[in-house]
User: Fold this.
Amino acid sequence: MTDIIVDSNIFINVWGEESDPRTGLALWEASSGIISAVGNGKLKGYISMINVFELVHFVRINAAATGRDPHEAMKLAVRKIEDFNFKRIFPDSLSISKALSFIIDLHLDPFDAILVSIAVNEGMNAIISRDEKLKKKASRLIPVLTPEEFLS
Amino acid sequence: MVITRKKLEGLIADLDKLFPEPDPNAKIEDVIGCFKDIFPKDKSSVELIREERAKMFGLDPNVPND
Assistant:
C-alpha cells in the first residue's frame, strides 16, 4: 500500500472547486481523486496536525470575511477531513527538531519544514502538493508530486 | 502531568467532540465546492496559503520567501 501525506492546498483545491486561472485546468479533479482514493482505502493518506490547523484557520478567516458562521465552517472543515479517513499525524520532538534543520538547510518555511520532516521520518512514499517551491526545495529528500503526477 | 483515569476519560471525550467518527456514507460530491462561496478566486490556493503563513508570522506577504 502506498503511503502519502497531503499538503493543505490539495484540500483547498477541492473545497473551493478551484481551477487554474491561467490554464483553466480543473485543479479540484485530480485532488478529489486523491481524497477519494484515501477514502475508499486504495491509498493510505495522512495529514499533519499542523496542516489541519492551517486548513481550519484558513476556513475561519474566509468564513468570517464573507459572512458565513466561522464556528460552523471550522467544524465542517474537520468533518470533511475525517470523513475520508485521513490519519492525523502529531509532530513529535524528533520531527520538530529535524524540521529546524530543514528550515536552515533547505530554506523551508516552518509549516513546510514540519510536513517534510514528518514525511521523511514516517517513511512516506510521497508528499502530494501543488507547491512548486516546496517541490524544488524538498525533492532531493522525498518525491513531491502534484495529484496529476501521482495519479498518472 | 499526572493523568488520572477521570482526566483521561475527559480528554478522550474532548477528542471525540473534536474529531467526529467518519461518516460511512460520505461522498466526494458533497465535498467538492463545499467552501466555494467563501474562498477568494483571484489567487491560487498556494498563493493564498503563502500569504496567510506570512501574516501568521507578522511578515509582509509580498516579501519573497526563497
About this structure: Chain B has two helices and no strands. The interface with chain A takes residues 18-23, 26, 28, 31-42, 44-46, 48-49, 52-53, 56-57, 65-66 of chain B (CB under 8 Å). The CA atoms of residues 28 and 34 of chain B lie 10 Å apart. The mean pLDDT of chain B is 85.
